[in-house]
Amino acid sequence: MPTPLSNATLSDLPDGIRVPRYDRGGLTPGIVHIGLGNFHRAHQAWYLHRLMDEGLANDWAIIGAGVRAPDAAQRERLLAQDCLTTLIELDPAGKSAEVTGPMIGFVPIEEGNGALVAQMAQPEIRIVALTVTEGGYYQKADGGFDAAHDDIRHDAANPATPRTAFGAMVAALRLRREAGQGAFTCQSCDNLQGNGDILRRAVVGLARLTDPGLADWIDASATFPNAMVDCIVPATGPAELALARELGIADNAPVTHENFRQWVMEDKFCAGRPDWDRVGATFTDDVHAYEAMKLRCLNAGHQILANAGELLSIETIAGCMANEGINGLFRKVETEEIVPHVAAVPDMTPRDYVDLIDRRFSNPEIRDTTRRVAFDGSSRHPGFLLPVVRDALAAGTSLDGLALVEALWARMCEGTREDGTVIAPNDPHWNALQAAAREAKTRPAAWIEQRRFYDDLAEAPRFAGAFGKWLAKLWADGTEATLRAYIG
């Protein structure tokens, strides 16, 4: 029988399972992390765990937090196993597992977020970090802060009982200022180019709606380091729970991940930080080059694959890479249309990076579903692909394949696969996307006239013409024939 995971059972786990080498009872908090999903536990928390294994950073333990009602279930799961997590590395050469323990608590999930605000106001909390997804930062189409959003309007009218993570951060910073304490570092760990700058706009912008003086203090006192994060981390389902049990661990929230991690960040921490660079993280003044390469090649690459995979009923990203047509689309768009707009970073050229991504995406042990990767395309296409389209328009370079990728997204959002099965809603804006996709079946421009996603790209004849051509072909000839036509 698998051993239930807890502090008391760590010594009972099977041989070969790496467990914390540090005394978890001696850890004290230094970080609040909002959004305790799989990615955080496989990535940022792992770096801290390995640092603690070296006898360091014992005063930087993590307190988990969330601002959505579903976060309460995650809280219960993790508290039931003393906030321990089993990480299972899925390497084609063989699986391995370790139990990590840098998280020591999880604040209650409650309306008004009082417990979260109180925790972040404690002076020992020096970093507040977030993984709230690319679409969780209340950005307008032009990248500015959306002060008119209902959630933001609520927090501006009710600053002591906020609804959003940003409102809770502002409330905690207000308490710290009133108590004569310093600010904490606000650290985004989401896949957004300039994520620290975006987080600054959200926090300072919200504060300015109610207290300009507080906004000025936050802007001057807090820091918002930009960072690039990278590790493929599938969602946890029955297969992952069963895999943990096969390894001898009864973990209610295990995490599977690939055998690759990268964390690159600016060294801008107003209240100190762990020495993450001792365990593989990179501090640099040029995060932009790293994040541009990753967002444009890897994150955009995911979108190149996922919509075509959904249409052809291919369940996983590795399955997409094994499909001749989808793999050909991926390689051609990446090398001919994305790489020309990506700069090299130390020890890595864009073309070498695409080869690395090819190997990572092709890992058959990683059951990363096309559905998960295709989720929230309304944030991911504007964030990862459309900036490259704009660069190609400005430079006069090829964008034919990029237009095809957007046509595949439109075709997917119509809501049916080519085998006739229904695609369940998979985007916060699904209803609007589906309506536009159905209109675009006979009038392709209807799709790219969605200004909240495409802004003025419908007015760019070269892009609009290519998009219309490919969408018409997808409906007339199907996905496989269209991919063959593009690959040539």
Written overview of the protein:
With 488 residues, the chain is of the alpha/beta class. It has 2 domains: 3-285, Rossmann fold, CATH 3.40.50; 288-487, N-(1-d-carboxylethyl)-l-norvaline Dehydrogenase, domain 2 (Orthogonal Bundle). It contains 21 helices and 13 strands. A 5-stranded parallel beta sheet has the order 6-3-2-7-8, with helices on both faces. A 3-stranded mixed beta sheet has the order 5-4-11. Strands 9-12-13 form a 3-stranded mixed beta sheet, with helices on one face. Strand 4 (85-91) and strand 5 form a beta hairpin. Helix 6 (165-178) crosses helix 7 and helix 16 crosses helix 17. The longest helix has 25 residues, at 287-311. It is globular and about 65 Å long. GO terms for molecular function: oxidoreductase activity, acting on the CH-OH group of donors, NAD or NADP as acceptor. It comes from Oceanicola granulosus (strain ATCC BAA-861 / DSM 15982 / KCTC 12143 / HTCC2516). InterPro entries: 6-PGluconate_DH-like_C_sf, 6PGD_dom2, Mannitol_DH, Mannitol_DH/Oxidoreductase, Mannitol_DH_C, Mannitol_DH_N, NAD(P)-bd_dom_sf. Keywords: Oxidoreductase.
